[in-house]
């Protein structure tokens, strides 16, 4: 009920924002550029970061929720903020069951950052929601102890959001399935493993790994299995039951996720398979022993992920309509 109330609140807020009148779009950039807004909205990064800091001070859910929102957005028709579009007929990405697990705090972070940016007269209606989401994602990672990086900017917001377009990795995927899906976006196995390392923060509903608990997946550490069985006795009776994706340091962006995999403490099958399959085990071992190597690979993978679906002006909307989140 709480989740539904938050979703309704977001829908109403975005509906109000959609009533704002926006100027026509600017000419599309030839390519993404970290300095895209240097002369348009010079204080952009400080404005977004300030909003993110405030949101993170209110709830630890902000960081994983925003990071996951960015991934879900980019994996469906590219990084165009179409995940933020909420249609009156319920046909949008947001209402696809695969996106039901997205937390309201991620959406709220983007809306808060957008409000902060538009509060600067130099920036009003000039920055796309897609770019704000990309910046906010970088900031939640770095503020959680992870790396920082120059975010490439100049995206246009999508005009269309369809739940039928949503195809995301399943928590039950094996390595071939993971490589196949990520590879279809031009991402390598190393990219996929590094992006999976984003599971170093956040949690998962028991429904996504319940099938590993009973009678008990032999690849799960016995002690960890018992802990999970106690946390998730029956998700049907308690749909809000969850477990941290990184049981060691769930609020810290670090390489503990990979050390957990070495110990049979991967929460999802798609996590643990990265260590169990000899084709990917070497990369897991590298990231587990060398946090700098993980951070470097994560930055490279996030940069490539952020380039998915670059839209020319004819296919997208400028920053002026970035806050028009309903249609």
TrEMBL record:
Its cofactor is heme b; Ca(2+). It comes from the Eukaryota. Disulfide bonds join 41-123, 74-79, 206-232. Heme b binds at residue 199. Ca(2+) 1 binds at residues 73, 76, 78, 80, 82, 93. The active site is at residue 72. The record marks 68 as: Transition state stabilizer. SUPFAM superfamilies: Heme-dependent peroxidases. Substrate binds at residue 169. Pfam families: peroxidase. Binds 1 heme b (iron(II)-protoporphyrin IX) group per subunit. Binds 2 calcium ions per subunit. InterPro entries: Haem_peroxidase, Haem_peroxidase_sf, Peroxidase_pln, Peroxidases_AS, Peroxidases_heam-ligand_BS, Secretory_peroxidase. GO terms for molecular function: heme binding; lactoperoxidase activity; metal ion binding. Its EC number is 1.11.1.7. It catalyses: 2 a phenolic donor + H2O2 = 2 a phenolic radical donor + 2 H2O. GO terms for cellular component: extracellular region. Its main location: secreted. Residues 1-29 form the signal peptide. This is Peroxidase. It comes from Ananas comosus var. bracteatus.
């Amino acid at each position: 009920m709480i989740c539904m109330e938050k979703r309704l609140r977001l829908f109403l807020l975005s509906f109000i924002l959609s009533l704002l009148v926006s100027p026509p779009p600017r000419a599309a950039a030839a390519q993404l550029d970290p300095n895209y807004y240097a002369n348009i909205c010079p204080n952009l990064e400080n404005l977004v970061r300030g909003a993110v800091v405030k949101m993170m001070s209110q709830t630890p859910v902000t960081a994983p929720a925003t990071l996951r929102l960015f991934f879900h957005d980019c994996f469906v028709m590219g990084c165009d903020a179409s995940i933020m579009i909420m249609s009156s007929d319920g046909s949008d990405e947001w209402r696809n069951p695969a996106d039901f697990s997205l937390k309201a705090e991620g959406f709220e972070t983007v809306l808060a950052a957008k409000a902060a940016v538009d509060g600067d007269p130099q920036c009003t209606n000039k920055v796309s929601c897609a770019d704000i989401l990309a910046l906010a994602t970088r900031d939640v990672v770095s503020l959680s102890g992870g790396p920082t990086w120059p975010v490439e900017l100049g995206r246009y917001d999508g005009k269309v959001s369809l739940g039928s377009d949503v195809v995301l990795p399943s928590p039950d995927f094996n390595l071939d399935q993971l490589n196949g899906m990520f590879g279809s976006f031009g991402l390598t196995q190393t990219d996929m493993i590094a992006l999976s390392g984003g599971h170093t923060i956040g949690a998962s509903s028991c429904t996504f790994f319940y099938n590993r608990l009973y009678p008990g997946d032999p690849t799960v550490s016995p002690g960890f299995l018992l802990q999970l069985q106690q946390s998730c006795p029956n998700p049907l009776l308690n749909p809000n039951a969850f477990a941290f994706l990184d049981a060691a340091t769930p609020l810290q962006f670090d390489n503990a996720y990979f050390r957990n995999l070495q110990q049979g403490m991967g929460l999802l099958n798609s996590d643990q398979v990265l260590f169990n399959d000899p084709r990917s085990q070497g990369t897991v071992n590298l990231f587990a022993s060398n946090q700098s190597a993980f951070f470097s690979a994560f930055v490279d993978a996030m940069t490539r992920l952020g380039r998915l679906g670059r839209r020319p002006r004819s296919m997208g909307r400028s920053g002026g309509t970035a806050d028009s989140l309903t249609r």
